[in-house]
Amino acid sequence: QPCSSSNVLFSLFQALHQLYYDPNIENKNLAQKWLMQAQVSPQAWHFSWLLLNLDKVPEIQYFGASALHIKISRYWNDIPADQYESLKSQLFSQITRFASGSKIVLTRLCVALASLALSMMPEAWPCAVADMVRMFQAEDSNVDGRARCLALLELLTVLPEEFQTSRLPQYRKGQVRSVLAQECGSVFPLLEQLLQQQDSPGFIKQKVLKCFSSWVQLEIPLMDCENLIQAAFTSLQDPELFDTAVEAIVNAISQPDAQRYVNTLLKLIPPVLGLQEQLRQAVQGGDMETSHGICRIAVALGENHSRALLDQVQHWQSFLALVNMIMFCTGIPGHYPVNETTSSLTLTFWYTLQDDILSFEPDKQAVYQQVYRPVYFQLVDVLLHKAQFPSDEEYGFWSSDEKEQFRIYRVDISDTLMYVYEMLGAELLSSLYDKLGRLLTSTEQPSSWQHTEALLYGFQSIAETIDVNYSDVVPGLIGLIPRISISNVQLADTVMFTIGALSEWLADHPVMINNVLPLVLQALGNPELSISSVSTLKKICRECKYDLPPYAANIVAVSQTSQCMWLMQALGFLLSALQVEEILKNLHSLITPYIQQLEKLADETPNPSNKLAIIHILGLLSNLFTTLDISHHHDDHESTEVKKLPVPQGPNPVVVVLQQVFQLIQKVLSKWLNDAQVVESVCAIFEKSVKTLLDDFAPMVPQLCEMLGQMYSTIPQASALDLTRQLVHIFAHEPAHFPPIKALFLLVTSVTLTLFQQ
Questions:
Q1: How far is CA 740 from CA 34, 658, 710, 714, in A?
Q2: How far, in Å, CA of 407 to CA of 389, rounded?
Q3: Where is each Importin N-terminal domain found (predicted)?
């Protein structure tokens, strides 16, 4: 612990030197820990001033100022009331001293004084802010006027920031906030004067805008900010002030309270619209920063206040002009994120505007629908244009990070299109279909694959989440899909995903399956399309399984070349709809190669590569058994076909296969029992099967319980417990199967209790 004054100072210098200059990280950490204790010690009051007064390097002075701030902000109650005034005047004189000194120390001292002011307001220091302004405006021959002005602006900027992060109790926070809001009357006229003065240098104006930005977050009435917002608009013409002015305007417009001041909001529309020329020039000149900033301002006004501005029906044209300006930002030329990063800022605005329009009472809604439906149709065109891939050559130069950002951007566009469907309805699908039809049947000029892909992507976005079963354009679309000449991976992927999105429609119109299934099976052979083709086949097999028996042999044959987990789930759905002997025949050809591989692996000495191969094969079987369900326990479709199907007689095909491979699985286990991942993969096969088959799993119960008991007694593993839980859960109402499950449960319990005793 710090002790006498000179010793303390020596220790502090040593610790600070260690913190900043010692290469050893452990020494740095020790120093930091000791310094943090020193800052909160009672001696901190004394040594802080010494560190500030000495002619020391900024790091040491900074530590002194920080210690003062910590004492004032966290240990306020330790300070006797009769010392408030001297503390205040000491801080003022230090700030004046450092006004021309180190910037980091000055800021820390300002934060300390701000903290003091917040704790004293309003009783102990009634007009704190006005006092600060007066103190710094007073002539002080030692300090240059500009330095004093900057110090005052720094103090006024950190005051609201310190308020936001202060530890004041809730009731005090409300009280201090309202005092500060009133005190803006001492601050704003000064800021206006500094912005309007011809001879104010750029760095002062920048500081003024930052200060304004900080104050508006105290929920100051928007009308009180009007003059400064207008001054900030003027500052946008100065490249040096542009970024800070954008920040100030956006903060002022975005405060939640602003919507109460509709007249002020209406006054802001013309200056925002007045930025359009600057925006166009920025876009033409490739100045991304400027176009981004102007777009932020337009979106802040539109997104935060669309409801309030729509309510002003007599001003509908000026709001529509703002909407069109935002549309320009959405459709800004160039590819996101390489040539522009602005369009993504606008997407939420379109949701908000639509929600607000649809929330009006019917008459007003009808009027606005008339105005805005054409705007939203234009939006769809703009979004699909923005979703287009660049040329193959250009896309080849993109980094993997840029490609990933573009993928996410397209997902956002897809979500927006899906949302817009609520406003535009079936007419949106018809319009997309007409465009696609014209594109694919036009003999004039060959269309780019990018254009075709984007239109299909729009269709897929809507069909994925919205029930298109009643749409009269889907049959035409299914007819058009085979006409698309697929020249590259991105287009092929989108064709696949679009077919997948229409799988429920295909289930209701099975005659059309033959139009698209060959495309999917062909794509399965292309490794680059494995994700899209497999997920599409899985959807078709799940939704249309009762119409697929004629294609089953073909699908199984094509699938045998792939070793994909999802594909196994697709085949599980497919086989579920066949007759039992057909299922067994297909299962035999499908899994015999894997079983033979597994037999070979089970004979080998365990090593990392055969471990991966074993886990892979067990995973394929698990995935197949996840969806292979001939009793249709998990059918969510209440369709007539399900009811017509006779309940299959005889053993369940999954049980037949499990019984055939049971000994092989035991052999694998005997070698790999101490490997948690292999044990987990084995348990997964049974867990998936029992979940899918439910009571049909019964014939397996005795031998599985015996195997689980042996496993758990030898090396207890979590996966064995999970599987035991599953068995207890599913057969809890089947007294016939109680004996083996009961014996297993008792064994597992006693093994576990023995473990706990160790």
A1: 64, 18, 13, 18
A2: 10
A3: 31-97
Q: Is the dihedral of CA 137, 140, 146, 147 positive or negative?
A: negative
Report the alpha-carbon distance of residue 336 to residue 390 in Å, rounded.
10
Cα–Cα dist 473/425, whole Å? 13
State how far the Cα of 359 lies from the Cα of 306, in Å rounded to an integer.
12
List of long-range contacts for 228-235, beta carbons under 8 Å, 24+ apart: 228/188, 228/191, 228/192, 228/195, 228/252, 229/253, 229/268, 230/271, 231/192, 231/195, 231/196, 233/271, 233/274, 233/275, 234/195, 235/195, 235/205, 235/209
Q: What is the pLDDT of residue 141?
A: 59
Q: What token pair was written down for 244?
A: 């800070």
d(CA 569, CA 628): 8
Q: What is the pLDDT of residues 493-540, one digit of tens each?
A: 999 999 999 999 999 999 999 999 999 999 998 889 989 999 999 999
How far, in Å, are 251, 588, 656, 663 from residue 598 at the CA level? 64, 15, 18, 12
Amino acid letter at 424?
L
CA distance 492 to 498: 10
Q: Which residue has the higher pLDDT, 646 or 518?
A: 518
Q: Which two tokens stand for residue 687?
A: 């867990």
Q: How many CB atoms lie within 10 A of CB 463?
A: 26
Residue that has been written with the tokens 């130069």 in this structure? 397
Distance CA(517)–CA(540), nearest Å, equals 9
Structure token digits, residue 8: 């303390």
Instruction: Judge residue 241's burial from the number of C-beta atoms within 10 Å of its C-beta, 0-12 exposed, 13-18 middle, 19 or more buried.
Output: buried
Q: Is pLDDT of 122 > 80?
A: yes
